[in-house]
Amino acid sequence: LVISRFKKGFRPTPWSFVVRNEMVVALGECLIVAEANLNSGSMRSVEFSLKQKKQIYVLPHRANESDGVNYLLKNSLAKPIYDIDQFCNSLKPIKKVDDPFVKYLKSSPLYEDAIKRFSNRVFEAELRGEIEVINGKVIYKDKGA
Predict the structure, then answer these.
(1) pLDDT in tens, 6-62
(2) Which residue in 52, 50, 39, 41 sits closest to 15, CA to CA?
(3) Which residue from 55, 48, 63, 53 is spatially nearest to 79, judged by alpha carbons?
(4) Residue 54 domain boundaries
(5) 1 occurs within a structural domain
(6) How far apart are the first and last CA of the chain?
(7) Both 29 and 85 in a single domain?
(8) What does the alpha-carbon distance between residue 13 and residue 4 come to, in Å, rounded to a whole number?
(9) Are 64 and 122 part of one and the same domain?
(10) Does residue 8 form part of some domain?
(11) Claim: this prediction has a pTM higher than 0.85
């Protein structure tokens, strides 16, 4: 999937990165800024996040480094991430979605039928080692089992 505001063949320019970042911010639930100087593209992303009322997180830096990050912390515009594991655990768990492809594979269909129904996904699953073909049947290797 490719999402862009630009026509196919558009050559990137300095201003186009700002436009791209605005779209990336819109798609995310929050913004994490690892490093930013005050006039950086990351700070433009911060502006977009603030307009969209999205939570901003930063990785703290020393007083004389990454003045954009320090500005965000000083002005309570962002929350610091001190412990990455703790931060990850604080995020909402991802809802599990029933995948019709996986459900189909669990029924051990014939390989030929699986190819007809989900051709590219079957090939991808084979390459990733998620399925095995035994006696013409697709065997799903359930990682959650």
Answers:
(1) 898 999 898 898 888 899 999 999 999 999 999 999 999 999 999 999 999 999 988
(2) 41
(3) 55
(4) 14-90
(5) no
(6) 30
(7) yes
(8) 14
(9) no
(10) no
(11) no
